[in-house]
Amino acid sequence: MQQFEENVRVPSPVTIEATRFRDAEGRHVILRGVNFGGDCKLPAGRENATYMPTDFADHREVSFVGRPAPLDEIDAHLARLVHWGFNSLRLLTSWEAVEHAGPGLYDGAYLDYLTEVCTRAGRHGLRVFIDFHQDVWSRMSGGDGAPGWTWEAAGLDFTRFHAADAALVMQYNYDPAIGGRQPSYPTMSWPSNYAAPANGIIWTLFFAGETFAPAARVGDENIQSYLQRHYFGAVRAVAERIADMDHVMGFDTLNEPGVGFIGKAFDRRDAGLGGIAWSPLDALAAASGISRELPLVELGKGEVGTRHVNVGGVSIWLPGRSDPFRDAGAWGCDDTGEPIALNPDYFTRTDGRDIDPEQDFFAPFFARVADTIRSVRPDWLVFAEINPFDAALGHGFPEGSPERAVNASHWYDFAILATKTFDVAASTNLLSGKQRLGREALEDDYVAELTMIKAAGDKLNGGAPTLIGECGIPFDMNDGEAYARWARGERTADIWTRHVTALDLMYNAFDRLLLSSALWNYTASNANDPMIGDGWNQEDLSIWSVDQATSPQDPDSGGRAVAGFSRPYVRAAQGELLSHRFDSRDRSFTATVLVDPDAGPTEIFLPSHLYGTDPKVTAGSATVTYSGQIATVTARETGPLDIFVGDQANAVTRDQTDGN
Question: Contact 157/318 with Cβ under 8 angstroms?
């Protein structure tokens, strides 16, 4: 197995000081990480499971051992990430991975495996935070995350979701014999599941069952308490295995949580990023077997038609179970059988006041996350996420959030993500409708969006760091142009030009705002195939692919658009980092550090593919050394220190390395 040696050591713990991360040497730390890895959403041995029809009958017997990669491959992948300059991982796991066999039945083999992955990450010098990942609740509802038995506990029959149009599940809407992009399962269609019946019901029960479904019980326990107790049991099971690892920074609260019907008017229709527009009344009626005709929406176009849902009148409630919201008097049917809201304010008001989803339900959930992990290790950080649609609109975190919390909101250019196209000369911001013409306009627009997200962190507990927990681009954009050129035998950096430009502008925006980040994603099983990609719902955002891996001796082998993300940055500043900026056009890098002589030295990642083995670093009277792609700058005097890196004579081309 090829190893790529770097000068690394197991990192020390990080702490929070206002909006900055600090290490044990008193340095301002920038965390530049990656999500590892995208196929953790699927059980091992199910690389094609997202498009093979199944009733998920084996959901209790699956295994996630080997996600994100087999142990005999882990070190090569981690060493490659370090070589590219990453210093941290958002390490993905899931509730299903830990507790798929049944309530309270933890997969010991998987916990052993995950513990070993965490251990090895530290040996490679990578800090880690654990993400219990989910998308639209579970694999059974078009996503990933929760075990299948959670549906049974809630009284729902996931084998009927497709027939009742209660969830858009790729297995039933995509024909692998045809391949490619198909109208029955358009790009980025899965987020519409958040408003569909299955997700609307389960998220409402998970966060607010005690409020809105008091009679929904498992034995003597309300469904909210039951589901959350098991979720936190799984979190604790992982926490106990890795409690002695100083390089583990903490835990994410829960990836991109839904809010279900909480705070929504009964007649408010929502289509997510496009698709069927559901209201809570529509969703609950369809779940009980009542057919509806609903608007069909396209992102950026609005309503484009209608769709009849659940024409077969299929109820998704298990035999002997009923809709707890209907039982509570929230809705019913008139004399003609038409569903009506009996209490139109049911999900928007309680105890005579308006409901605030974040304050009323996320705040106690965050507190329970903190209590759970800190009962195992008191110094762990909480990487907090609210509903991603609310975060994109600038909604803040609830008051009373746990101390030592991090703003871990996500950010993407939705125009690239939803359309899988990119043109630097002209594009449209799909959230604001704003036209963006050229590099400068794009970068400025990114900064504006990220400033809004950062503001939520600036207000969190009076000031908290922001780490963009997900960001990235699809590599199959523009109709898979890069893959087609690769298949024709092209191996130059030119095939990744669009991708490099998009990543460059994204990281420029992060640098301007001094943001930490975790790129989505690195998938060890990725392939240049629309039916495979990252292994999940035709997404393909991995910066590495086995199809690009042609030279085991080259640490960049398998990389896609390496020049876009392997770039200079200050990973630790001797005091406080005031600015850092890389210009890819002339390969110049500048930084300003407000020096604290008592802190450890500044460390700057300077990739050899840009600067060779002897970069020219100017830093006033400070001492500069360089080893293993890291420039170490030690200053003796308090005050601002300007650092400049740039030497065209030392720069080498990417043509031999990028994409090879």
Answer: yes
The answer to whether 579 and 594 have CB atoms below 8 angstroms apart is no
Residue 88 dihedral angles phi and psi, to the nearest 5°: -155, 160
pLDDT exceeds cutoff 50 at 653:
no
Query: Strand order of the sheet with strand 248-252?
Result: 405-407, 381-384, 248-252, 127-132, 88-93, 32-36, 516-522, 467-468
- The amino acid present at 496, given as its one-letter code, is W
Residues written for the chain = 660
* DSSP strand pairing (28-29 vs 569-573): antiparallel
N-term to C-term CA, the chain: 18
CA distances 483 to 320, 422, 471, 489, Å, are: 52, 15, 22, 10
List the structure tokens of 276. 């069927």
Q: What is the mean pLDDT of the chain?
A: 93
Spatial separation of the C-alpha atoms in residues 456 and 342, rounded to whole Å: 37
DSSP characters over 343-376: STTTTTEETTEE--HIIIIIHHHHHHHHHHHHTT
| Spatial CB neighbours of 170, under 8 Å, sequence gap ≥ 6 | 50, 51, 142, 185, 190, 537, 538
Neighbours of 450 (CB within 10 A): 22
> How many angstroms separate the CA atoms of 393 and 142, rounded?
25
Q: Hey, what are 50's tokens?
A: 């997202």
Q: How far apart are CA 549 and CA 337, in angstroms?
A: 60
Give residue-wise pLDDT tens across range 235-269: 999 999 999 999 999 999 999 999 999 999 999 99
13/245 Cα distance (integer angstroms): 9
pLDDT tens digits for range 3-47: 544 456 789 899 999 999 999 999 999 999 999 999 999 999 876
CA torsion angle 282 285 290 296 (round to 10) = 10
Quote the crossing angle between the two packed helices 197-212 and 223-242, to the nearest 10°: 100
Interacting residues of 644 by C-beta distance below 8 A, sequence separation 6+: 588, 589, 590, 617, 618, 619
What is the mean predicted confidence (pLDDT) over 185-191? 85
Residue 164 · residue 286 · CB < 8 Å: yes
Strand bridging mode 630-634 / 602-605: antiparallel
Q: Which of 60-69, 213-222, 527-536 has the lowest mean pLDDT?
A: 527-536
Residues 6 or more apart in contact with residue 641 via CB below 8 angstroms: 574, 592, 593, 594, 595, 602, 619, 620, 622, 633, 635
For position 4, what pLDDT does the model report?
45
Q: Report the share of the chain in percent with pLDDT over 90.
A: 85
- Residue 656's pLDDT is 29
What band does 530 get if pLDDT is binned at 50, 70 and 90? confident
pLDDT at 430: 83
* More reliable by pLDDT, 391 or 576: 576
Q: How far apart are CA 259 and CA 386, in angstroms?
A: 9
Strand, coil or helix: 109? helix
Residue 179 vs residue 139, higher pLDDT: 139
Collapsing DSSP to helix, strand or coil, 309 comes out as strand
Closest CA to 366 of 397, 395, 411: 397
pTM of the model as a whole = 0.95
DSSP, collapsed to helix, strand or coil, labels residue 278 as strand
Q: Which value, in Å, is the radius of gyration of the alpha carbons in the chain?
A: 25
Q: Please, which pLDDT band fits residue 460 given cuts at 50, 70 and 90?
A: very high
